[in-house]
Every structure is written in C-alpha cells, then in structure tokens.
Amino acid sequence: MPNLYTPDFIYRTAKEYFRIGTVATGYFVKNLIEDPYSYAKIQAPAVNISFALELSIKAILLHELGRVPRGHEFLKLHKLLSPEAKEKIAAYFGKTIALGGDFPIIRYKKAQSDHEPNTHDCSTVAGVLAMHQDAFIEWRYAHEFSIKEPTIMDFNFSAMVRVTSSCFQYIENDVIPITSIR
Questions:
Q1: pLDDT along the chain (182 residues), means of 10
Q2: Residue 155: what are its φ and ψ, rounded to 5°?
Q3: pTM value?
Q4: 74-92 as b/e, with b when 16 or more CB fall inside 10 Å?
C-alpha cells in the first residue's frame, strides 16, 4: 500500500476530485435550466473543484512544511505557502486558460431580497481565493442553506479551475519529480 501522507498522493487525490468536478460542471451547465433547484445541479461540482483546490494547496504545504495544516479557508492556507510557491502559482495563473472552456459564475440567493453585486476581482489568485474563501464549507452543506439568511454565494467556475490548474502546474513542474507523477 502506498504512503498516503505524501505530496504525490494528495496531489493525485486532488486531480481526481478536479476531474470529476470539471466533467460534472460541463454536463450540468449544458443541462441547466432556470428553476428553483438549479443550484442542486452545480453544488456537487462546486464542492469537488473547491476540495481539489484545497488538497492541491495542502500537497504543496506538506512538501514545504512537512505537515498538512487543518482547515478549509483558502486564504489562510495560501498565506502559509512560501513566497516562491505563491509567485510561481501566480505566474501559472497568468498563463492558464480554464480547462473545458468557459464555465459560468453561479449565484445562489438564499433570500429574495436585493444583494450587493460580487465585487471580488478574479484576475488574481488572491482575488479568486477571497471570493471563494469558504466555498468548500458553504457549498457542501445543502442542509444548512437556510440557517444564515440572507446570504448570497457566488461560484466562478472558470476562476476556480484556473487557480486549481495553476497549483497543479506548480506541483507537476516544481514540487514532485515528473517521473513520479506518471
């Protein structure tokens, strides 16, 4: 049995969540209709892509720190990365085009009142992480959607795919020897 507490294993797990999330996103977006249950069709892909991003950052942190910090908050995890990792991920982000084409920005309103528009700048890694800071937590708990009324949750699939892909590129090119990834 392989050692499960390695950057390589965590990276491979993240890639599987990502693959399932992006495939499902493509399918559900093509079949998305405006109805009260539309959010249910994109909830699972949003959770998978969010978890893939979290795991990819944790794979890098395990490589750099020798441990995996607890928690799901993207900005807190990102702050723990070395300056070199942040710089290279940002560089990959600048060159990355979302895999699978353009995915939508999904807005789920928990209440019918008017809400402020999304003001997060998704042109940077930090902006994407700020917009999706609690995405994994918020999107995976469907049974708690009515607890914190009123709330609005945005999910920019293209931006999340780009950041996650950038972390993967960093892992593949700079963290794990390419021979061990294949």
A1: 82 95 77 61 87 97 95 94 97 76 54 49 88 80 58 76 94 77 52
A2: -140, 115
A3: 0.83
A4: beebbebbeeebbebbeeb
Residue type, 139: W
On whether the CB atoms of residues 153 and 107 are closer than 8 A, the answer is yes
Report the alpha-carbon distance of residue 109 to residue 74 in Å, rounded. Answer: 22
The structure tokens 């991003």 sit at: 53
Nearest to 108 by CA among 42, 154, 43: 154
Which residue from 108, 99, 106 is spatially nearest to 36, judged by alpha carbons? 108
- Mapping DSSP onto H, E and C, the string for 125-173 reads HHHHHHHCCCHHHHHHCHHHCCCCCCCEEEEEHHHHHHHHHHHHHHHHH
Distance CA 175, CA 14 (A): 15
State the Cα–Cα distance between residues 53 and 59, nearest whole angstrom. Answer: 10
**In the chain, which ranges are continuous DSSP H helix?**
7-30, 38-65, 74-80, 83-95, 125-131, 135-140, 157-170, 178-181
